[in-house]
Amino acid sequence: YMAVFPGVLAYAGWSFVLAHVPASRAGSYLTIIPVLAMFIAWVWLGEAPTAISLIGGAIVLFGVVLVNRRK
């Protein structure tokens, strides 16, 4: 149950995103997953992120903004 349900949910979500956004743009947003996981762990589990984690997250977010900016 734990393996199938999240897999189906993720596949359905990815299909929805690809129907509305080009694959090149949607793919760049996949790098935000670890940043969101760090934020969720901080809020939900009380795990404090380290300085290197925050710096890495900022670099990831900057990269996504840089890749997806309009020319």
Short account of what is shown:
The protein has 71 residues and is mostly helical. The chain has helices at 4-20, 23-29, 33-45, 51-68. The mean pLDDT is 90.
Search tags:
single chain; 71 residues; mainly alpha; 4 helices; flat
Report on this model:
The protein has 71 residues and is mainly alpha-helical. The chain is 77% helix and 0% strand. It contains four helices and no strands. It starts with a helix and ends with a helix.
Name the beta content range: under 5%
Q: How would the global form be characterised?
A: flat
Order of helices and strands: HHHH
Low-pLDDT segments, ≥5 res? none
Label the structural class: mainly alpha
Separation of the first and last Cα atoms: 45 Å
Rg over CA atoms = 15 Å
**Helix content range of the residues, please?**
over 70%
| Annotation field: number of helices | 4
Overall average residue pLDDT: 90
Overall strand count: 0
Largest sheet: none
Map the helices and strands.
Blueprint: H1 4-20, H2 23-29, H3 33-45, H4 51-68
